[in-house]
Amino acid sequence: MSGLGRHILLAEQEPSFDQTGIDFIAVDGVNHAKIYIYFVIDPLEPDLGFAANELDIECLGTSSREPRIVEAQNFEAHTDAQGRTRNVLAVIFDSGASFEMQRLRLADLTGARLDPFSSAADFSFKQACPTVFDCACHGVPGDRPGSDYPVDYLARDFQSYLDTFAAFSRERYPQWQMNIVPDQARMLGDLIAAIGDEMAFLQDGYRLQTQFEHLTERRSFQQITRILGYSLRPELPAQGYVVLRHYEGTSRPTGLPPFDETVIAGTALAGFGDSDMVIPFEVGASFDDILAGTGYPTSARWTDIPVHIPDETCPWIARGARELTVTGTDLVHPQVGPGTRILIETRPVDQSEPLHRIIVTLDEDPGLVEDALVGMDVTRLHWRAEDALPFDLKLERAFVSANIVPVVSGLTHEERFSIGDNDQALPTAIEREGPLSGSGARRPVVYRFPMVRTVTDGLSWRPAAGDMPWDRRYSPDVALARTNAEGALQEHWRVVADLLAEGPADEAATVEAGHWGPVFTWLDNGQRREHRDYIGDPGWCLRFGANGFGLAPADGAFFRLRYRTAWAAHANLPPDRMRLLADPANEAPDSLPMPTAILSASNPLAFDNAQPPEPLALARLTVPHATKAMQLRAVRDSDYEALVSARDDIDAVAARSYWLGTWTGTFLATDPKDSIALDDDIRTEVTRFLEEIRLVGRPAYLANTALRPLDLQIVLCHDPRVPWGHVVEAIVATLAADDPEALFHPANLTFGSRLHRAALETRIAGQKGVTRILRIRYRWRGEGDFRDFTESFLESAPDQIPVLKHDPMRPDLGRLEIFDSQLPQETAP
Question: Which phi and psi (to 5°) does residue 610 adopt?
Fold first, then answer.
């Protein structure tokens, strides 16, 4: 009878338990000299009533017959993985330092309560060790016998494994002559060869994921290229605007009542692509708006408003216009004002006329204007300079709409899960051993939870704070919160792109490329169980911290996870492709339904900013060149200048290194974009960046820029028909106004800039009313007195920036003086 059958007989004793036996032996994970003996029937059952001192214990090495001395024995209560409490016999021996198999036998000193056929069991003191090298032992183990058959380590596929197995069988068992397909041994060989082939395939796959040219997994690619400072571009969703109407079509019905409705961010709608493929969208400018529930006001009378034509003989507005009037007063509303977006569009009847559409942002409140000539009230709209019309607008078929709401492709999904088992029928996080801690001998538990919808729909990302062309940074559209068992919020956790910057007490998690999910399932006592493991690309999962990089969640904790999909591969759509969802409860169960007052939606402009994830095939070609182009260390002065000036907000950098008596230090001066001084935020970012790129022992300092103020005196003649004040104002505007077109604007001056006399005279002579330039004098403030500008150009040192601010509050930054015909006596040389 098999051992399993003997155990069943012991467990099915009736009507009382007369005997028990050894079920199995476990070794303590910390103290290998301590073992736990598990029994088939609880030895403390009233029918048995064992005491610890009533059991005699004999333990011998199976080969050496060396005995082990028992130092202590007692009963302990243990709880197994299924939550069942079992009484076990804990035995402590004098030593557990042996790699030899041990034979343990128990004897009942007071009766026959032990089954003689189940009173012995074999075990090893090293059963808890990952390898024999992880546990110390006394003495040197003897030589292990070598293989008695030469192993072919080149066998890597099914046929070679099968040939090796057949050759081994013929040599080891020469009497075996049944090498035919139906033979059981041949079937076993086929099975072994198939398993070997599968294992070799997996092994080769793991090896290839460590070689850059063979990478196929996004997760492996990120782990290798992060040391080079290269980050793969994730999925970026499509973003744009839609017009929401309280009626069908684009013609507003007459007599429509003035009904207002607020649409909340996170409300679902859809676009349709090729083959009428449904592409979900949500209202909201960003994931933060969706989480905050931002509201967007709409009204039944804010759409399809005809543009007012003041003069029917000239129904046009010229290119560059920033205002127009519309019929009626519907847009004179408390919720329409600066910051409100307005759609201006034409609807030509003749196909030869162009179709124009533009979304502008108001910078003034709509104004009520009475057109007394035609006897009607109209509304004046005025928008920002950057939204000036880029085309001539024909007013005859022009309309204005104000129900403009931002949308982003993809849907928001919500899931709840727990750390460890729960009684709420919620899914649990996947547990795996993490990397070995440097301060301890144990591996921490790493918890992951798969975001299932990202496998097919992708994960939405957005540019993160501090994102620069030279330092791309992205943040996932994922939100995490810890809740109680009923789902009530307890605290928010941050979801970051990288856990390396987090501390052991930071409540943060990250997202990790690759999908984790069920690999296989099995039945356990009638209950379906599953094994979840890494599956591969595509997809993303949530990963908690461990080993001091982020706080590890407590066992039994509940979490609520919200994340957005991107649909980036299909979300770039042409105009007029939006509609409402037919069945929002099933198509977008975690999103808000559209208010019943909204009956139609359309996108006036195309969606063209969705970007799918960067292909690995393209990245393999890009990374070698990017690592050369994106230098991450600075040694020479030119290295500092190239790296810092790559920022969009800095035009130029001057770096100089000096011997400071003990070490060499580098001092940098910057020329900020459209400014003469760095603001505090940019200064902090640049200082942090210098610490990242400088050499150890070679400090780098961000110094104040050396400005060289310039004072100018201009003497000229002007046309008496033009007021002198107009002439002065025009010259000041072309030379020192706060306009990038001005000659002395900071955008046009940098380190060592030259001021050409011809350029200065051209600017002055080109102003209305200037007839002749008599004299130009200059001085560098603090360097001397005024002198005539007779040189071809004025030049500054390579580390100086000339400046002429002409600000009465800052005369130390340069001054401009303009005189009519001659210099006053007090300023004459």
Answer: -70, 135
